[in-house]
Amino acid sequence: MTSPTPSIQFFEGLFEELSNVSLRRNRNSGLRTVVMMFDKLKAIERFNSFTKRSTNSLLLTDSEGEIRVEPSSVKFRFTGPEGDDLARVDCAFEIDREDHWERFMRFMNRYAEANGMEYSEPGEKGEG
């Protein structure tokens, strides 16, 4: 039996491709915020969001199982001459427990490995 490929879904059966992710930590509270960035979403192409069942959360799946998170914000960023070209979607959520953070990081490591992404600290070479 093979392990499932790590995946991200807003709607059941629509597998999204993560473009980038930002991990932040509030120095005062210790609360961690994850911002997942998507250059395009299958969920809104051709109005798929009206034909598929919503998960009512962000569903992250890997060999350990499922993680369901409720986004605290979803921002649609537009560009173009008339401001109607979708440039990116930013989906943010908070993680307050250390065990949940560790589980999320295991997911992200698997997702990154499966999709040719790599981690870098702010200010490292190659960041631009």
- Order the strands across the largest sheet as they lie in space: 2-1-5-6
CATH topology: Elongation Factor Tu (Ef-tu), domain 3
What name goes with the CATH superfamily?
Photosystem II Psb28
Low-confidence stretches: none
Explain what this protein looks like in three dimensions.
- The protein has 128 residues and is mainly beta.
- It has one domain: Photosystem II Psb28 (Elongation Factor Tu (Ef-tu), domain 3), CATH 2.40.30.
- Helix content is 13%, strand content 41%.
- It contains one helix and eight strands; from the N terminus they run ββββββββα.
- The protein has one helix spanning 98-114, and strands at residues 7-11, 14-16, 20-25, 32-38, 54-62, 65-69, 73-79, 85-95.
- It has a four-stranded antiparallel β-sheet with strand order 2-1-5-6, with helices on one face. A four-stranded antiparallel β-sheet has the order 3-4-8-7.
- A hairpin with a 6-residue loop joins β3 and β4.
- The longest helix is centred in the last third of the chain and has 17 residues, at 98-114.
- The radius of gyration is 15 Å and the shape is globular.
- The termini are far apart.
- 15% of the residues are buried.
- The mean pLDDT is 85.
Name its key features:
mainly beta; Elongation Factor Tu (Ef-tu), domain 3; four-stranded antiparallel sheet; 1 helix; 41% strand; globular
In short:
The protein is mainly beta and 128 residues long.
